[in-house]
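Database export, one record per block. Field names are fixed; values are copied verbatim from the stored entry.
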Amino acid sequence: MIKFTERGNQLLLIYQSDLYNDARWIDEKLQQDGDVTLRRTFTFSPADLVTQDIPSDEVDDGDRIFVIGVLEGGYYKISKDILGLKHDLLLDGEMKIAAGTFIAHRDISVFRKIDELIEEPIIVGGSNESAIPLADFELLLKTFPTSTELTHYARTRIASTQRLFRDDLGCRKPTEPAPESQEKTTYRIS
């Protein structure tokens, strides 16, 4: 599980291990590969790992803490490298930040999806005139496709592709017999 907390001017991501997985896999991944990705959204390097003392009421030994952003000019600036974006992300320093701010159903990165559609930095909330208003961003999160909608879309897409593939293999049925002098056959898709 992940959660977020603020400490001074830093926004921290806390990874909490569960009953089945302790956090040592993160340490091993950082040592072996030089980075670790959490929830298919956040990629951290060893430099992002916080090794300083954090109050014990906030974390325990099985937790790993990463600096995800730094407060600058009223916005938390989150590195494009952590989120896999083209530009750094700016989040209003006053907004409530949770896992759902970044991650939609099935671990889809919300900001990566937005980043695919635009060619400028993503700014959420605050007074910047280029910012997505906080109310609009919250509406976007609420209306993001659910798991059920994604499943229905996937089934429809597969059915459509399967029909096209079947048709291309010659599994079409002629609608009427062609006269022998014509080479062209009219097909009906079944």
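Remark 1: The helical segments are 24-33, 80-83, 99-102, 110-117, 134-143, 147-168.
Remark 2: Residues 4 and 145 are 24 Å apart (CA to CA).
End of record.
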